[in-house]
Design the sequence.
């Protein structure tokens, strides 16, 4: 504890240095200590009991005190950019199971934590990641259409939604937006904080959204995004041609590709296993017995393609942009199991392409640590502001854990 406490104090001073009042900075540090202490539940009352304080102090700090959680996230992102020096920004979302219906954004949706549809909230997050460390630097609470009265078909339903929004103090400008749009909002926010542009990685829930991929390109960002096997592509060696002209009337000017697009699965399976190479992209965790870490190795096929979609902007000659199609084809599998599209350079080595495509594993580490160890999903409040503040503070607590893991231990005293 003698080693840990100074780190917590210094980190709290850095993250909460923008608070106008000393008591707010003190309560912020207190809340972090509560999240970091041993204990199964990290909701207000259990934390207050372990800290030996009135739980209303913690409640007031999170729900009504006047401090800016966005500024805390900005400082956290700046810390992550310097301390972690991320290889990529990873996008994902996670579920928070709920028993009642009063928490902001709660609805019956698919929840990964439950492995099925259930009553839950969904939080979308942006993580600064490398193979050795990661940090959740931004969050948005997803609002389903059932929490947006502007989407209601009937006046009575709209009035009910407006009342439950008022109970949760949801700001009027916070409306239903697709998760990929929330992700782009957060990327814009991190860029506004002055962070340098990084590669973006995400699963197929985001990669399958053509508008999300285009949004990244429009922002000058490269990506390696998982996509579905049914994603439509043209082989890279195909080019658009002018449409047939009968010789009468005005000649058509719109060029098209001579063949219909095929699915990613069709193209990769046509290339065959022989087109793939085995790649070792990282070593797994060591076993509890201290045995050497297992090698993460599989076969991958990488092809140059033109993604096909009517909403993808074309060049002057009608051609679609070219990118990588990466597929994993493990030994013993009759067909590829996973696919990615990536705008990384055409001359990148296969191992480098695979490594960044696979770097999303860090998100699962983050969610596990944030939820199991730091109580991110233990928040019992029912306010929009309280939820965003709690997940921000849990993310700061996780960053402290990351820094402690990299802090050299003091030498043993004789």
Sequence:
């Amino acid at each position: 504890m003698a080693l840990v406490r100074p780190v917590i104090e210094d980190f709290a001073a850095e993250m909460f240095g923008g608070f106008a009042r000393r008591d707010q900075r003190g309560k912020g540090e207190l809340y972090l200590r509560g999240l970091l202490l041993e204990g199964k539940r990290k909701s207000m009352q259990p934390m207050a009991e372990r800290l030996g304080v009135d739980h209303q102090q913690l409640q007031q700090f999170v729900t009504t005190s006047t401090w800016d959680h966005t500024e805390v996230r900005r400082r956290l992102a700046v810390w992550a950019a310097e301390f972690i020096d991320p290889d990529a920004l990873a996008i994902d979302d996670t579920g928070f199971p709920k028993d009642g219906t009063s928490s902001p954004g709660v609805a019956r949706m698919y929840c990964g934590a439950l492995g099925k549809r259930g009553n839950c909230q969904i939080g979308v997050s942006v993580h600064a990641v490398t193979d050795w460390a990661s940090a959740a630097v931004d969050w948005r609470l997803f609002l389903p259409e059932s929490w947006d009265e502007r989407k209601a078909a009937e006046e009575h339903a709209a009035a009910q939604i407006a009342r439950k929004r008022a109970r949760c103090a949801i700001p009027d400008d916070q409306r239903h937006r697709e998760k990929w749009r929330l992700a782009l909002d957060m990327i814009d926010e991190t860029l506004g904080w002055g962070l340098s542009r990084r590669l973006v990685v995400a699963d197929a829930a985001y990669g399958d959204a053509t508008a999300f991929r285009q949004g990244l390109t429009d922002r000058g960002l490269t990506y390696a995004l998982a996509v579905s096997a049914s994603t439509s592509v043209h082989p890279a060696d195909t080019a658009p041609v002018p449409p047939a002209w009968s010789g009468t009337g005005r000649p058509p000017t719109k060029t098209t590709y001579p063949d219909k697009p095929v699915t990613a699965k069709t193209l990769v399976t046509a290339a065959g296993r022989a087109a793939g190479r085995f790649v070792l992209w990282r070593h797994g965790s060591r076993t509890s017995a201290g045995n050497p870490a297992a090698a993460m190795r599989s076969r991958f096929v990488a092809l140059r393609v033109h993604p096909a979609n009517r909403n993808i902007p074309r060049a002057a000659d009608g051609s679609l942009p070219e990118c990588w199609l990466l597929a994993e084809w493990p030994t013993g599998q009759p067909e590829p199991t996973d696919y990615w599209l990536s705008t990384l350079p055409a001359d990148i080595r296969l191992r480098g392409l695979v490594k960044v495509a696979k770097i999303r594993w860090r998100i699962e580490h983050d969610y596990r640590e944030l939820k199991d160890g730091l109580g991110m999903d233990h928040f019992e409040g029912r306010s929009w502001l309280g939820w965003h503040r709690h997940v921000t503070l849990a993310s700061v607590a996780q960053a402290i854990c990351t820094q402690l893991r990299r802090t050299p231990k003091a030498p043993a005293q004789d």
